[in-house]
Amino acid sequence: MTFIFGVTGKGGVGKTTFAALLIRALIEKKLGVVLAVDADPNYNLNEKLGVKIENTIGGLREDIVKAVDSLPSSMSKHDYVEYQVRMALTESENFDLLVMGRQEGPGCYCYINNILRNFVDTLSDNYDFIIIDNEAGMEHLSRRTTKAMNVLFIVSDASKIGVDTAVRIKNLSSAMELKIDNYVLIINRAPERMPAKVEDATVKQNFEEVYTLPNDDAVGTYNMEGKSLLTLPMDSKVTVEVANILSKVLEEKKGG
Ligand SMILES: Nc1ncnc2c1ncn2[C@@H]1O[C@H](COP(=O)(O)OP(=O)(O)O)[C@@H](O)[C@H]1O
Ligand SMILES: [Mg+2]
Q1: What pTM does this model have?
Q2: What domain range is 207 assigned to?
């Protein structure tokens, strides 16, 4: 079975940072084969993972549309799309990365999008863990590349407004036809003691699982220097905490 983690939240809260650290934790624990999916049109997960990318699905889509009508008869449209998706896959030592990118051009891509969606599902079977880093907001969840997720991490800052937004995201996604087993709230850059108002909001709105991540100056420094978060010291605050969060979430899974 493939375990699918989604990461969402409003802009700039630390979604990509959390996704990268989660990928690192999975690699360190050697739990299986990992696929990272960057579903943010303004993709930058590759930078935080220290990977250069050659292709995005969005970039290839244009070529696919042009080519499907002139394919050699030996190749079906379906095979061709699959071939292109494989071209967009960046393989590195510890994980593969698929960058969705942005749809270019005004054409109709419904047909291609459908094949893509199915193929990403098929491709999923080759991996034990898939981590999907999303763009800010909620709209993307309705045009997801997969239909089901085991855990959706909603990342927030430590403010009341931030947490209220996280709750709204949770409620909106519950209303959509998505199968999400578990919602987990991550309060990033949290102070040592959470303000009572925020505690209240989270407890009242009943996120079953809430974890906090501290501010870590090293994350800011690495970000400025464009360094991979996979090379943060193993004992850095956020690295340790995200590894703990992963253990707890997987433990929950086994228990339930
Ligand atoms: N725990 C943290 N400690 C310090 N800086 C952080 C932390 N989490 C995120 N940041 C910084 O916040 C900014 C936004 O993070 P990012 O992960 O790109 O957010 P998002 O993907 O939600 O837009 C980046 O400059 C990142 O380095
Ligand atoms: Mg991001």
Answers
A1: 0.92
A2: 3-255
